[in-house]
Amino acid sequence: MKITAKEHYQQLRVLTCEELWTREVPAFNKSTGNDRIQRVAVVRAVGVVFSECGTPVERDSARSWLQGLLRDPEEKVRRYAMTALPKLGADTSEEIELLDLLDKSSSEREVRHLSRTLEKIGGTYTLERSQSAKGMPPLRMIQKAQANVARESNPGEFDWEASFNFTPGIRIHLHCRSGLEEILENEVIEKGLFRVLQRFSGMVAVEPLRDFCLKDIFTHRCFSSAAFVLGLADSSAESLAAAIGSAKTLRFLHTFYKGPLRYRLEFTGRGHQRGLIREVTDRVFALNPDLINDSRAADWQIDIQPSGNKQGLELTPRLKPDPRFAYRLRDVPAASHPPLAACMARLAGPFQNEIIWDPFCGSGLELVECGLCGGVDRLMGSDISPEAVDIASGNIASALGTSIPADFFCSDFRSLSTSLPPVSLIISNPPMGRRVPIRNLELLIADLFETALRVLKPGGRLVFANPLPFRPQGQGLKLVYRKKMDLGGFHVHLEKYSKD
Q1: Is residue 468 within 8 Å of 435, Cβ to Cβ?
Q2: Which of 158, 181, 192, 436 is most buried, with most CB under 10 Å away?
């Protein structure tokens, strides 16, 4: 009973590089005619398995074999080879061979596969050949080749100091976790660089009060991402492309970025839209060849999301790492989201001569954010994980140097609390029992409240993310703030208590 190429591939996919190379590849090489076509799945399997498991020498051998198959008399074999090659990191020799094949091919299907392969590996030679091609080369192939060249030779960089001249109607969306909007809004008001327009779930809309630069936006620490609003368009590819390629978009990009203008396009909440993305980005490139779609490593992202009966467009700088949190040398599993740590610190303030303790310090982000607020005399962190203590200590030193005395203890918070000095603030994002198993989460939270009563000075505060609908028993801690927030797929309450 014959099996399909897909079924044959699934059988070959689980083999080792050695099994493929010593058994399946020789069998394929010896085959002819219909038997060769029946065995073509081995070409795909070699590309996948060797890219995942092969040594550098093995991958080089596999790439050389695949390159040879580009000259195979069977078109199907050539198509499989050109699809497998990019997985192994094809270089200029394969690029040139594919371009030669593109010039010679008369098969529309093969030309389509060649173009898609050259979109992935094409570079300088592809761009040079496109200038002398007899027919008009596919715009997508040229666009992707430009992206590949730019990524390798001129990736570009953000200009943090460049000033964007004030224009009425400029709108910026500061996105945050749901539940943190009020804290973010207060931060914007306090800094006074932008005016708050509206507050939505998970977002605060602002506008500049004067000329501004990227650094002005990123002085705010409580948002997750900042997006420039490009406007509205209808759902047609033509309308979306016109909005993306508009003078407004180009003004943002040219002001804040030095280098080739590469962007990634996403349709928010609509699942995979590969066909529409290809159509829109091709139209954008045809309108303005300076705007290059690069789905791999672009520094800008354009998000399209429903807004009434229209589509809203936002332009977001993709910062990795985010310069606000570049002090993070390492992280622990389930570490706090940095903007959440910043929000918690703001909620805990204002600070004056504070002695601060995080009983579940993890990566130390809450302590760092408190230290950056000023008014802190001493920081203390504890955790039962020696690795977490080491990571938190390193992050504190990276962010604050030696400006604030900091002590760390590898200890259970309950036993440590009896030896601590009086504390003015306990701040923590405790384990939630999701990534790190907790035997009795309710008892852990109850013990945290009890410890806070014992350790805090009169007037001291407890600020933490409470994973349970749990309140302290008896008198002593007064709830002054409670807000439900999204912690990435589940909800907790951000709470603040003061000690009587």
Answers
A1: no
A2: 181
